[in-house]
């Protein structure tokens, strides 16, 4: 699915994905924090305010976890951000960032290509 009805927050290891802290850049590495971002998923894009959360179309070719970034909607073409898919999972959803689950490392978000670092990810419908 490329859409989830309504708004929701995302928690990774019980900590919410935080709103963008520094709005002066076109893209910034997404972090966990006390001020949760409220998302919509429409046409495969995770949006929160003026920002899109996702993986860049341009990444290194290694199998290391890939950075999950905030992209400013005003200065970024949506075709430069990989789509996010949602799959029903019980009474919630499971998100995949180009086939990779979301993980955190030292408070920053990544997509785990190898799927060898499973973490609890919660989608909390508002």
Automatic annotation (TrEMBL):
UniProt-listed Pfam families: Inhibitor_I66 (PF16850)
GO molecular function terms listed in the Swiss-Prot or TrEMBL record: serine-type endopeptidase inhibitor activity
Domain of life: Eukaryota
Protein name (record): Uncharacterized protein
Organism: Penicillium argentinense
Organism lineage: Eukaryota, Fungi, Dikarya, Ascomycota, Pezizomycotina
């Amino acid at each position: 699915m490329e859409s989830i009805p309504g708004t929701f927050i995302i928690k990774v290891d019980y900590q919410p994905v935080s709103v963008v802290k520094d709005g002066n850049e076109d893209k910034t590495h997404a972090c966990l924090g006390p001020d949760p971002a409220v998302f919509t998923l429409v046409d495969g894009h995770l949006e929160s305010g003026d920002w899109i959360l996702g993986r860049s179309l341009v990444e290194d070719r290694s199998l290391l976890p890939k950075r999950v970034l905030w992209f400013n909607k005003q200065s970024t073409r949506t075709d430069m951000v990989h789509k996010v898919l949602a799959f029903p999972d019980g009474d919630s959803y499971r998100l995949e960032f180009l086939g990779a689950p979301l993980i955190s490392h030292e408070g920053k978000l990544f997509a785990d290509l190898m799927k060898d670092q499973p973490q609890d990810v919660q989608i909390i419908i508002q």
